[in-house]
Amino acid sequence: MQLLQQGKYERALAGFEKMISTAPPEIQERCKMYAQTCQRQLERARLTFLTPEEHCDYAVSLLNTGYFEDAREQFSDILANHPGADYALYGLALLDSITGRSQDCLKHLAQAIELNPKNRLQARADNDFQSMVDDPRFTELLYPEVP
Predict the structure, then answer these.
(1) CB count, 10 Å around CB of 61?
(2) Whole-angstrom distance, CA of residue 66 vs CA of residue 61
(3) Residues near 74 by Cβ (< 8 Å), separated by ≥ 6?
(4) Which of 35, 70, 75, 95 is least surrounded, with the fewest CB atoms within 10 Å of its CB?
(5) Mind listing the pLDDT tens digit for each residue in 19-57?
(6) Are residues 20 and 69 in the same domain?
(7) Are 74 and 136 contained in the same domain?
(8) What is the average pLDDT score of the chain?
(9) Cα 93 from Cα 40, distance rounded (Å)
(10) What pLDDT, on the 0 to 100 scale, is given for residue 49?
(11) Structurally, how many domains does the chain consist of?
């Protein structure tokens, strides 16, 4: 556990794998879970992306498979390096909608639309915003009144 907490994932993984075969059954499941955590951390460290769009595709794949916090981290990383990445803001808005964070959803979607107005059209047809359709602020954002 100390190795895991210290971020020494390779050594921790080796230890957990060794324990899986020798530990009592009630501890084996916990060891398997920690081993998977180590493997995920090691995979994350190996990830390299040629473009921010490629990085965003990875974040969307995490979102689609239910790894919401990992997806949020990836979208945030994209925005830290590319503040004008409207697609990452759109991805965060989707994630916020799916996870019930309506205020954050509206904020991120408004920013995505401001950077790229085509996001407004995309959001109108996107079923992932289903939880937001009854919110009048969402409707205003997607269908603004033309003066």
Answers:
(1) 13
(2) 9
(3) 55, 56, 58, 59, 62
(4) 70
(5) 888 888 888 888 899 999 888 887 776 678 889 999 999
(6) no
(7) yes
(8) 91
(9) 25
(10) 87
(11) 2
